[in-house]
């Protein structure tokens, strides 16, 4: 991903934040941190993390204001304060999505009132970079931490490979979560290709009399659909000099959307909005046998179902479009920690961001407590990610869930960019897919409308953008 940030800021914020419901569900991710010992020297032997002593901070007592939607982050802050007594951390849970983003954009425009650290999703980060309100953390040693992160996550926060606008926190590589009990009951084979997926969907439909669907198509979450096109090599946004290129109706997108539309039309998969009572009821009552999920999905489902069907699920690699191809996955979700330029303590803020996302205690507890998947390489490779008696592994019958998703994380293409006007793109997707599911559009018509209306919005906001 390479794109110079030379474009006018769009102040648009998505009113239907794509993962707001998921973010709200992350209510206890840090609950177990207080009991964990903080001993960086010992941890370094078995768990590779940066030399935090290289990150020099400002002198004197320091208080960092941190905005995040992860409840319980104050427990991690307390551990950080133990290691760095001169730095106090005040965590302000401002909520996810529009609540935080609008407040942060207002503070950036005003030049004051913002935090020292703000949590921002990868797909919305460009809309903040173009404000010129985020600090370049490379000035404070951030690139020394680059080697500790999955390459594609670093590409998300460092668009030109030089400036760094955030430290990766979590990711959402994709895999297939399936109910083994239902698969065994109906004699289904775990699909390795999308052709096999469609075949098993037809088999299940006949065996269950149409009562059980193989999976669910998410009609109101553009990043879910985008993750599947990402896995097939799609490129939706890129730059050519100072001009943006948008390709929402590219051939890969049409192939993926036509595939899922065909399954929906044949009633082989459902099309229930995600993160709703209807969706969870369908999953929990055995009406849906699998779900194409990001790494955080099993943990969210385990909590949302209150352990109903716990132990019945397993995770398999994402189906591929052809046998024998190099394995590829896409990503849905994930965020980073950014530092606004107005911070009076950018060095200390950078240290906190790096520590939060590379130190063993917060990284591993984050996964074992609630299934938030790490962006750090050490986190992905640590055997401590596997806790058979805790969710999400417990939800998946004791399977090493992290091992499957770690392989998926390594197979995500790093050369993937988001546009500063993605908030509009995200919302407009819902409009076009609603028409598609309602039979008012073909997949091509829906994608063309998505492309054209998003282009019009981008140009109206002052961006130089073309189709190819």
Features:
alpha/beta, eight-stranded mixed sheet, D-Maltodextrin-Binding Protein, domain 2, three-stranded mixed sheet, 468 residues
Characterization of this structure:
Strands 1, 2, 3, 4, 7, 8, 9 and 10 form an eight-stranded mixed sheet that branches. Strands 5-6-11 form a three-stranded mixed sheet, covered by helices on one side. The chain has helices spanning 20-25, 40-46, 73-83, 98-110, 125-129, 151-157, 180-185, 194-207, 222-231, 251-265, 277-284, 297-304, 346-358, 360-370, 377-381, 401-410, 422-437, 443-460; strands spanning 62-68, 87-93, 117-121, 167-179, 237-240, 243-246, 290-294, 313-317, 331-338, 373-374, 465-466. The protein is built from 18 helices and eleven strands. It folds into two domains: 20-171 and 334-399, Periplasmic binding protein-like II (D-Maltodextrin-Binding Protein, domain 2); 173-330 and 417-466, D-Maltodextrin-Binding Protein, domain 2, CATH 3.40.190.10. The protein is globular. 39% of the residues lie in helices and 13% in strands. It starts with 19 loop residues before the first helix and ends with a strand. Strand 1, helix 3 (73-83) and strand 2 (87-93) form a beta-alpha-beta unit. It is α/β, with parallel strands linked by helices and 468 residues long.
